[in-house]
Amino acid sequence: MGVDGGEEQIQERAGCEERIYVSIRLRPLNENEIARNDVSDWECINENTIIYRDNLSVSERSMYPTAYTFDRVFSPDCSTRQVYEQGAKEVALSVVSGINSSVFAYGQTSSGKTFTMSGITEYTMADIYDYIERHKERKFIMKFSALEIYNESVRDLISADSTPLRLLDDPERGTVVERLTEETVKDRNHFGELLSVCEAQRQIGETSLNETSSRSHQILRVTIESSARDFLGNDKPSTLTATVNFVDLAGSERASQTQSAGTRLKEGCHINRSLLTLGTVIRKLRKGKNGHVPYRDSKLTRILQSSLGGNARTAIICTLSPARTHVEQSRNTLLFASCAKEVTTNAQVNVVMSDRALVKQLQMELARLQDELRSAGTAFIPPHFAALLREKDLEIEKLKQVIIELSQQLNRAWSEVEGLRRRQQAVGDERLVKQERSSTAGVDNQYPKLRVQNTCDYENSLTEIPVLAVPQCRAVSVRSFTPSQASDRQSFSSEESFTQLPVLRVNISHGTSSPPINFGGSDLPYKENEERVDESFDDPCKEVKCIESELRIRYADLNMPVANPNRYDNANRSSPGLNTNSYDNSNASSPAINAATSVLTDVDNEDKANLAFRSTLSKEQKELDSVHLDYIISSSEKLSYPWLVEKDISGCSSLKLTRSRSCEEGVTGLISPWCESEEKNSHIPIWHKRDVTESPGSIQRKFCAFKYSFRSEMSRNSSQNSSKSDADNELQAQNVTTPNEKKFADRAVQVTETEQDHTLAEKTVKDVGLDPIQDDMGSPSGWPLEFDKIRGEIIELWHVCHISLVYRTYFFLLFKGDPKDYIYMEVELRRLSFLKDTFSQGNHIVEDGQILTPDSSMKALNRERHMLSQQMQKRFSEGERENLFRKWGIGLDTKNRRLQLAHLLWTDTNMQHNAESAALVAKLVGLAEQEMTSNELFKLKFPTKPRTSKKFDNFKRIRNLISILQH
Ligand SMILES: Nc1ncnc2c1ncn2[C@@H]1O[C@H](COP(=O)(O)OP(=O)(O)OP(=O)(O)O)[C@@H](O)[C@H]1O
Q: Is 114 annotated to bind ligand?
């Protein structure tokens, strides 16, 4: 062992486990041993092995080994210098590099421990001074302390105070000796003086014990603080601090061998206690450091804990007496040495960093950790994550609001529908009762049936109609078709549903005077004048069958007032008070009669108290005769408002939506000629026609009322707060007496008030009956145009938002104008408007888990067009494709014709273009077969529960499918 390898060599070993360096020093026989003719039985046969050379018996050879091998074995002729250089120097001088070190001398009494350690300490200190001399660029501070452990008491050998010292446990430094004097050593001479002081103190102690033997453990500690090289790359060098312990243990002989008693026995026990604990610690450490190591069982092991298996390099020099008389102790020493050489320590460079260096190191560590976080964050956290989250949250909130609003609207709509359905069912039950009564009375089929539009919001109001006495009721608007009109309608209708519409008959009652009108039964005065519906129009009307909401009230019991006995012979043409229409247009000369589909029963103010109205259901004829009884109102001022008649003509226009759920073209074709005919015949003012067919504002307002039923409550509330209109005053002046009259009247007032911006002419019988749902269902004047308008807006938005062509096709083909489609179309319109607004603001939308942007939608649309072009190849023959190309104006000699055609689809707002596009796309993707043949499409009924709508389920399913295809 040596330190010639230099400081670097020492530091390389730092941080690594290394075994305690164990060497054996065999001294020569001393004078006493020679004097008693003792012989030396031990021989160092080489630098590492010592053998027992006495002649052992066979049994003894089996018990004791004869050869021992260690790191180094020093024979009796080896000098202490040699022992230092090869057995302690490297370990001891580790202190100058900041590594703790310890050098022990272990052996029996008089084996040469003190002799050896004195030399080791001297040489070490000499080399330390030399090292300091060679490293003048570094600053060194040496501190010196010496302590003695005697009878498990610790004493400071420097201080004159003989008070035993206490051992304290310091969390950083381990076990420290309280009040231990540390003398700063300035130079060699000063160190020598201190050693002298220590020796003097020890002598004093020994003197006090009146003994000269070294039965105590002495520990000389030299702590060196030095400014070290910049191990960490800091500007300022760090400070190293380490301690080297020179330990001269007491004799390891057993207490029994002291052959003493009393104080000497106690002394020996304590010595052996520390040595026994030292041996135990060594044996424990040899097996590893996992188990409990009893450092604290003795003062010696507590103080030397770091030197025994801790942060220190350790060298143990075991001294032996060669005398045969000490063979047993020598064997024990060799056994201890053998255990010690198995013990490992883990020495570290003890760096005391300056605050500045510490700050810099911490900053470097912080930067390193931040880099790790950033690199880790890149893998998991997308950039602008927080902003993205906020954006998503906003979108979610917006969508939630839209969903809430639409859900509320739907709920209100379904509630209205359900309420209506219940009312109709109630009315139907009542009608069955009345039908029985009528049948019994033998008046069935004598009067055309009425299709009554319930204008009343109240439950049970219609159920009371059959027995209702409405003395104040002045006008009854009944709509019907004339056979010729029906025939015309057939000719204009493109769908079977229109051709099968029932031909309705009008019972016209007209009277100039105002006797009470009795809508009685069998006593109907003009029964014989009633005209039967032409049987040629009695074909079952599928369309009518489908309409659950339709009310057919048999008119047989309608006891028309005697005030108008000539309602069929046009005798009333001079009477403006009652406007009746007959399908035969026999009253065409009268503007009032020319209303053609209306029956207005006017009752004089003075006679209004006796108006009664009854209606029953004629089950047998409900598909044959149907007359639309639009509204019943009270109007004592009717004669003052001839426009009532004209307005009632507007009811004829409502025929165009008489349960038409299919083709708007058919509707248009139906209504126009009819109205034209009426205009010719009845001289209906043009303005009124316009009001019906050309005034989008009027229609819009009406449709707004329809569309919301949802909003009806709001409308009512607002109307209730509005100022009294003329119509209001008019109606209020009717002195309504019966509950149902009041309901009708109230309803009329409410609706009229909501139409304050209308002209007075619009506050008519028609308008009074502007129940949202009912107006749509029975007075279809508003919905077709509104349907066109909404569909047009939807188509434009489809184009703007790059909506899927398949989706457009399905929607286009599915929703053709049924009033019940309004909800879906309104939802679609709102959805598209929201989409457009969002896109225009540069935002995106998450739909079905996918992020939609204008760009992504455009790409999806292009993909879809490509897909459709491929489908053309599959779906059509070459000839069919050529025909298609010609039809769509694509040159047959051009390239990519299929793709050209795909890019032409759904690119115009022209409805024919859209219809053709839809037809082609449906063919290409098989919608025609798969979806559009659904019975739901043509036999759609009002669902009793929204969730049961297969139509809407199909619609959603297609949307989801398209979303998946797009992404
Ligand atoms: N290697 C050696 N060569 C010559 N003399 C030696 C050697 N080792 C020890 N001695 C002599 O042996 C005697 C006892 O030595 P020393 O006091 O060092 O023993 P010790 O182990 O310290 O005993 P104790 O445990 O009582 O302190 C001394 O006089 C010393 O000079």
A: yes
Q: Looking at the chain, which residues constitute the CATH 3.40.850.10 domain(s)?
A: 7-11+19-352
Q: Is 111 annotated among the ligand-binding residues?
A: yes
pLDDT, tens digit, for every residue of 83-98? 999 999 999 999 988 8
Closest CA to ligand 1's atom 25: 109
Cβ of 114 less than 6 Å from ligand 1:
yes
Calculate the CA 598 to chain-centre distance: 60
Residues 424-447 have a mean pLDDT of 56
| Residue having the nearest C-alpha atom to atom 1 of ligand 1 | 27
ipTM of the prediction greater than 0.90, yes or no: yes
Q: What is the pLDDT of residue 318?
A: 96
Tell me 467's DSSP state. Answer: G
Is there a contact between 478 and 629 (Cβ–Cβ < 8 Å)? Answer: yes
- Please report the pLDDT score of residue 89 as a whole number: 95
Q: Which two tokens stand for residue 643?
A: 């426009």
> Would the annotation count 113 as a binding residue?
yes
Q: For the ranges 2-6, 403-407, 854-858, which has the lowest average pLDDT?
A: 2-6
Minimal CA–CA distance to 39: which of 28, 49, 50? 28
> What Å distances lie between residue 365 and 358, 361, 371, CA to CA?
10, 6, 10
Task: Tell which atom from ligand 1 comes closest to the C-alpha of 107.
Answer: 21
Which runs of E-coded beta strand occur in 255-342?
Answer: 313-320
Q: Taking 90 as the threshold, does the pLDDT of residue 565 lie above it?
A: no
CATH number of 7-11+19-352: 3.40.850.10
Q: Is 891 helix (H, G, I), strand (E, B) or coil?
A: coil
Assess whether the C-beta atom of 107 lies below 6 angstroms from ligand 1. yes
Pocket lining: 322 vs ligand 1, CB cutoff 6 Å? no
pLDDT at 615: 41
Q: Is 580 annotated to bind ligand?
A: no
Q: What is the largest CA-CA distance in the chain?
A: 175
- Relative to beta strand 344-346, strand 17-19 is antiparallel
109 CA to centre of ligand 1 in angstroms: 8
* Ligand 1 contact via 110 beta carbon (within 6 Å): yes
Q: Which atom of ligand 1 is nearest to the CA of 118?
A: 18
Q: Is the pTM of this model over 0.80?
A: no
Q: How confident is the model at residue 264 (pLDDT cuts 50, 70, 90)?
A: low
